[in-house]
Amino acid sequence: MPGSLIRLTRSLRFQLAFWNAGVLVVLMAGLLTLLYLGTGLLLQRELDEVLQEDCRELELLTISNPAQIDLDIELKRKATSHEAQQWFAQIWRGGTLLATAGNPPLGAALGLEDQPDGRGELMGFRLVQQTTGNLRIRVGSSLDFLSEDLTRIQRLFFGSGLAVAVVSPLVGWFLAARAMGPVSDMLSTARRLDAASLEERLPVRGIGDELDRLAFTINQMLDRLAAYTSSQRDFVANAAHELRSPLAAVRALLEVTLNKDRPVEEYRELMQDLLEQVESLAGLVNSLLLLAEGDAGRLYRQGSSARLDRVLERAVEMFRPVAEQKNITLQLIPPPPATVLGDPAKIRQILSNLLDNALKFTPAGGRIDCNLVLDDPVHPAWAKLSVADTGPGVPNEYLEKVFDRFNRSDPAHQPMQPKTGTGLGLSICRAIVKALGGTIHMENRPTGGALLVVKLPCA
């Protein structure tokens, strides 16, 4: 699996580099094209502005120098100084050509007569015309030098684009490697993880990006897996420990039985002891199987329901003789009719475990109160069952641990009574209640004693 992830990472790195290079080349080509077109338009606009300024200059010169000779000299001077641009000028007054300079293209006297102020192109020349009164001035310049400039810019852009096309895959590979670096670190850490060592966590850079959130989420999952694995190890170890004692007792009884011939009555007593040990083992195994079904999510049978009030009344009546024998008052407030989700046998097991736990830790002369209430008398959604005792209670730091499997080491109960049972009663209650979609918790009563509250959804 890690090898496949590494190959996937390399493939992603190549794809990121390829796509980064492709996107960069496309963007660069589009940008250079826009720059090339924009530069051509800008140069043409600047040329129009220069020609427009030449028109205004010639207008002022014509008005201030009416002598034809001065005007011809000035026009020839400007044409000579702008020979590289093939600059030319034509001046009319009243429809008569007053002066001309340069080499205007054929047809330069045509095309703009009807436009007082016009700009246009003719045979590779850019023309600007200005009319003031009876004075018309036309100035033009060749577009060849602009084409040459655009050609040089085009070559520059092409060279830049080619360089980007060559360099961008390398840059894309470098950036992809930088971007996939944290993923590689995660894969390296994941390869070192196994069921025996879940203490390592994925590195979090603290940037807050998607990779950090991914690492944080996976670390939370690893925390839950580590906690679950640890609880399963403890569960297996405790189960083995609990099974070892009755198995040792069974073995000892069998060895004693086979040691020598005995009277029938002695065999009967040994078989009776052996039966008690087997029954204890069967109860423990059944409890373990029930918890395993709870872990697998198979405790709730779809469509099953039970009358909680009736099951509660029967459970109280069943435990009342035990309470009287221990001089404990077992009180039940008349419950309202309540139908909850769940198999009646599982509901009965919850109540039996709760009452047995309360009787176990309530001293003689104490009291146990059972109560059942609904959140809505007409259309109830939840039924809340409470079992309160007058025992020593539980220290706050142990309130959650009482539901742990094989928990029989509560210091609050040690002075009162030795460890009894398997320590799975409340664990089974929590597993069944959780499977039914309910909640269970324990709290200490203000007046002393413990209060166990079970909340179950109504059918």
Write the layout of secondary structure elements.
Blueprint: H1 2-64, H2 68-81, E1 88-93, E2 96-101, E3 117-122, E4 125-132, E5 135-142, H3 144-192, H4 210-259, H5 264-295, E6 305-307, H6 308-325, E7 329-332, E8 339-341, H7 344-360, E9 367-374, E10 382-389, H8 425-435, E11 439-444, E12 450-457
Parallel strand pairs: 7-9
Antiparallel strand pairs: 1-2, 1-5, 3-4, 4-5, 6-8, 9-10, 10-12, 11-12
Helical coverage, percent range: 55-70%
Distance between the termini: 45 Å
Secondary-structure arrangement, i.e. CATH architecture of the largest domain:
2-Layer Sandwich
Count the DSSP helices.
8
Structural class: alpha+beta
* Outline type: rod-shaped
How many strands appear in the DSSP assignment? 12
Identify the CATH class of the largest domain. Answer: Alpha Beta
Describe the protein in words:
The longest helix has 63 residues, at 2-64. The protein is an alpha+beta fold and 459 residues long. Helix content is 55%, strand content 16%. Helix 1 (2-64) runs antiparallel to helix 3 (144-192) and helix 6 (308-325) runs parallel beside helix 7.
